[in-house]
Amino acid sequence: MGGPNGAEGAPQRVMLIAWGSRGDIQPVAALATHLKHIGREVLVFATPPSTDLLESHGVPFVAAEESIAGFVEQLFGEVDLSDRSLSGLMKLAQFGRQYINSAEYVDLQRSDVKRAFEAAQEFNPDVLLVPNIVYGAYVAIAEALRVPVMTFDLLINHPTPDYPLFQMTVGRVPRWLNSSLHRFKGFLYPKMWRAKFSAAREIVGIDPTRYPDGTKYKIWPHDFPQVCAAPTTIFSQPTGWPKEKIVSGSWVLREDTAFDPPESLVSFLTKKPVYIGFGSMKSNAEFRQRLSTLAIGALYEAGTPGVLLGGWAGLSREALDTSTPRGEALYEWAQSNIYETHSCPHDWLFPQCSVIVHHGGAGTFAAALRSGRPSVVCAMQGDQPFHGSLTEARGLGRYLGIVGSPSVTEGTVGKAILDMKGNEAVNQKTAQVGGLVRAEDGVARTVDFIDTVVRNHSFPWPTSAQEVAK
């Protein structure tokens, strides 16, 4: 496995599993393109539609049958994410549980494990990288092929007293309780996902309960090497993490060709507008109307021009209810004060805006940090409250809460925008932090980590690297 493109023993054939929206796939594309650049062979197994990003950068990939856009469409098509009432939350939980446990979804997951396994058998990787949550079961492929494996996350996802569970806000519980909450998750997580993990092991033909060395199969927290692709400027190496688990820095995709923006956008950006967008958040028509009204109404209340990124949520002035006086007024104001675009590279756009209003997803959070601009975070779900609360705790912006809650209104968002635009201390700090984050090289550090793992880590199954070492 050694050769001219790396130190002796460095893996030359790297396979990655990627699941999620563009914000999840883009970091994988960054690592894959870097690996290609240094002469390694790469294959990515990923969920569409964001596989178009891999294709555009010449990264070899195999598309999963599961479409993340289809997943989101089905999961949230009948649910209003901005309804934070008890009945709304219960409806969301029930709908999600029914979908994930449906025969159709289970069959799709089994089919994709088989598809990925067949691709891996043909590619014959020296090492496999697997996302730690939904697709963690794909670790079984590495065990079946007897190759090293490591998992990756875009956030802190291993027990430490330094941070709470990524679904929580920072500072909500005492520091000493954080590790206990992680351990409690380690009790619940296997109960939720054991069937999926066991099915994957069955499909690839390995013991569903034991590793080859006789130790008990453990879903989480696992003992495999793990990398957290998050900014080291914000997340120093967490207390209590073993040496085979690291924070690498973000995996940032360096575009090969410069983005060619329309002249109308370039001209609009001379106004130093506010960016506002909610990424891959998507739901029904009522959700689209509520979120569009919130976004445009906040800019209206702040009296500032804005760039409105439609995204999967479909934010647009066309979604406003113009049958009401308020909706009609917002629509008229938006025509001359808001620039609408469906998508735009964050690393190009954010530095040219004055404030970044976003949902707090891992990819957007990292891009906002790199931009050197203050954030206003209005979260929806998952890791977003964690990133939003961390933004405020570090003095890099404001976290207003969950969209649909009383703390997130057109008025409160508008006020936060003005506060951030005029706060010199926050702007100085975000500029300083942005420079430090941009200087990180997460992909290079990750490659060094991969090489070290392959050469030195002992897995509970025999690997070719271990046999060579003997």
From TrEMBL:
Pfam family, any one: EryCIII-like_C
Keywords: Transferase
CDD domains, per database record: GT1_Gtf-like
InterPro entries given in the database record: EryCIII-like_C (IPR010610), Glycosyltransferase_28 (IPR050426), GlycoTrans_28_N (IPR004276), UDP_glucos_trans (IPR002213)
Domain Erythromycin biosynthesis protein CIII-like C-terminal as annotated: residue spans: 341-433
Protein name (database record): UDP-glucoronosyl / UDP-glucosyl transferase
Glycosyltransferase family 28 N-terminal domain residues: 14-107
MF annotations from Gene Ontology: hexosyltransferase activity; UDP-glycosyltransferase activity
Gene Ontology BP terms: carbohydrate metabolic process; vancomycin biosynthetic process
Species classification: Bacteria, Bacillati, Actinomycetota, Actinomycetes, Micrococcales
